[in-house]
Amino acid sequence: MDEQEQQKLKNYVLWLLGRQEYSKKMLIQKLKAKGADETFIEKLLAWCESLGYIDENRYCESFLRAQINKGLGLKRVLSDAGNKGVDRARLIQLVETQEIDWFELAQQAYLRKYATTPEKLDYKEKAKRIRYMMYRGFSYEEIDFAMQAATMGE
């Protein structure tokens, strides 16, 4: 790689980081897709870290905030973390330090999708709603709480 290509890749990484937070894993994937070699990637990312452009803790926090704002449950957050290069142990530790009411989140997600809920749901409709909420990453207890709260009209 010549100096011009290296400068282009450096500018590319700075442009990416200027738009949003990225994990090291995601940046490595993007740089490899651009044809960067391993040693240059390591050197570039170490430089970015030394200047504070890459911070895994900061990325983990922004990832968790974004997932919660989407109305996703803990199971889905942990599942998506692997795809985005978030350290699972760091994420679990962060979740434990935050005061997140997963039951409240489940209720909000349920009401957003199912604003009107009849008193009695038939089996098929109830199963459909439970599947939807499980896909969103909520536990059965959280789903049950959300469904009961919706039928009570809270």
UniProtKB/TrEMBL annotation:
Keywords of this entry: Cytoplasm
The keyword Cytoplasm is assigned to this record: yes
Subcellular location: Cytoplasm
Main location class: cytoplasm
Taxonomic superkingdom: Bacteria
GO biological process: regulation of DNA repair
Domain RecX third three-helical: 99-147
Domain RecX first three-helical stretches: 10-48
GO cellular component: cytoplasm
Keyword Metal-binding belongs to the record: no
Pfam families: RecX_HTH1 (PF21982), RecX_HTH3 (PF21981)
HAMAP family tied to this protein: RecX (MF_01114)
Family: Belongs to the RecX family.
Role this protein plays: Modulates RecA activity.
Name under which the protein is recorded: Regulatory protein RecX
Organism of origin: Pseudoalteromonas byunsanensis
